[in-house]
Write a structure and sequence with these properties.
The chain is an alpha/beta fold. It has eight helices and nine strands. The protein has a domain of 133 residues: P-loop containing nucleotide triphosphate hydrolases (Rossmann fold), CATH 3.40.50.
Length: 201
C-alpha cells in the first residue's frame, strides 16, 4: 500500500477551490481535513462537517495550548487546522485534503515534507476579478479581496503544481491525475518495493 500524504489545495478568492475540493473528495482515498474558524456559518454550512465554528476565546486557547497545526487571521476572522483533524485522517489510511491559504500551506509543508501542494487559479486576473465581484453579497470588499488574491498569486513559485480552473471537469481531472501520479512515486511505495525485492532474492 502506498503511503498516505497530505494534499494541499490553495487558491485566491473566486478561483473555485471549494467546488474543486468537493469533487476531489468523492474519491475513496481522499478525506477532508476540517478547518476551524471564528467566522459565522454561511447558509447550509454545518459545524463539524464544513468547519469547526469556534468562538474567538476557544480558538485563542487552542493556539495557546499548541493544538493548531497552522492558523492565520484572514480579514477579521481566525482560520486554522487542529492537529488532531489531519492526524485522524492519516490514521484511517486516507490522504488528507487541506484547503488552506498560502501562509498555511507554507507552514504545513514544513511539518509534512511529503505533502503535495497544488495552486488553483482562474485563467486571468480579469476573470478572477469578475468572479470575486459575482460572489460579493454586499458585505465583502471586492478590491480588498482582489488585492489579497494578487499577493497570493506571487506565491505560486512555492507550489508543486499550478492548475487553471477554466473548465471545472478538466480542472478536477488534472488534480486527480496529479494525486494519482504522486501516489505511484517509488518513495511512497517503500513496502511494495521491499516486498518485490525480497521475492526476487
Amino acid at each position: 500500500m502506498a503511503e498516505c500524504f497530505p494534499i494541499i489545495l490553495s487558491a485566491p478568492s473566486g478561483a473555485g477551490k471549494t467546488t474543486v475540493a468537493n469533487e476531489l473528495l468523492k474519491g475513496k482515498k481522499i478525506a477532508r481535513v476540517i478547518t476551524a474558524t471564528t467566522r459565522a456559518p454561511r447558509i447550509g454550512e454545518k459545524h463539524g462537517r464544513d468547519y469547526f465554528f469556534w468562538s474567538n476565546q476557544d480558538f485563542e486557547k487552542a493556539i495557546k495550548d499548541k493544538q493548531m497545526l497552522e492558523w492565520a487571521q484572514v480579514h477579521v476572522n481566525y482560520y486554522g487546522i487542529p492537529k488532531s483533524s489531519l492526524e485522524s485522517v492519516l490514521k484511517k489510511g486516507k490522504c488528507p485534503l487541506l484547503v488552506i491559504d498560502v501562509q498555511g500551506a507554507k507552514t504545513v509543508k514544513k511539518l509534512y515534507k511529503n505533502a503535495v501542494t497544488i495552486f488553483l487559479t482562474a485563467p486571468s486576473i480579469a476573470t478572477l476579478k469578475k468572479r470575486i465581484a459575482a460572489r460579493s453579497d454586499g458585505t465583502q470588499n471586492v478590491n480588498v479581496r482582489l488585492k489579497t488574491a494578487l499577493k497570493e498569486l506571487k506565491q505560486i513559485k512555492n507550489y508543486d503544481y499550478l492548475v487553471i480552473n477554466d473548465d471545472l471537469k478538466e480542472c478536477v481531472h488534472t488534480c486527480r491525475a496529479i494525486i494519482e501520479a504522486e501516489s505511484k512515486k517509488v518513495a511512497r511505495q517503500k513496502d511494495l518495493v521491499k516486498k518485490l525485492n525480497k521475492s526476487g532474492e
